[in-house]
Amino acid sequence: MTAISITPHHRTRLRMTVRGRRVLAAAAALPAAACVAVAVISGGSALASRDDAGDTASFSTVVVSAGESLWAIAERVAPESDPRDVVDDIARLNALDGVVVSAGQELAIPARYDTAP
Hints:
CATH topology of the domain at 59-113: Membrane-bound Lytic Murein Transglycosylase D, Chain A
Strand order of the largest sheet: 1-2
Number of helices: 3
CATH class of the domain at 59-113: Alpha Beta
Helix content: 40-55%
Oligomer: single chain
CATH architecture of the domain at 59-113: Roll
Order of helices and strands: HEHHE
Number of strands: 2
Radius of gyration: 31 Å
Distance between the termini: 111 Å
Shape: rod-shaped
């Protein structure tokens, strides 16, 4: 029987060229760039949907009294509606960042909640 000698394979160290590093960096940055693009594109549509509180051309106005909250205003102008929906509609129509209002502030109320004759 003849003995066959197998020489061990030497592994070579992986070496990347400058071009290879650039390609790898671009491939790694691609998902981040896609996320930024989606955020920018959807940011414009999010602002457009903020004005969707109904027909903004017709509305009535109320002046906030001292100690009055947006929730109290919603219950006063639309007692038969869910106050959460009314607060959301008023906040959207007035482009409010939150639900904090101050005394003397004039707020537009969507026409569908206007109970005046």
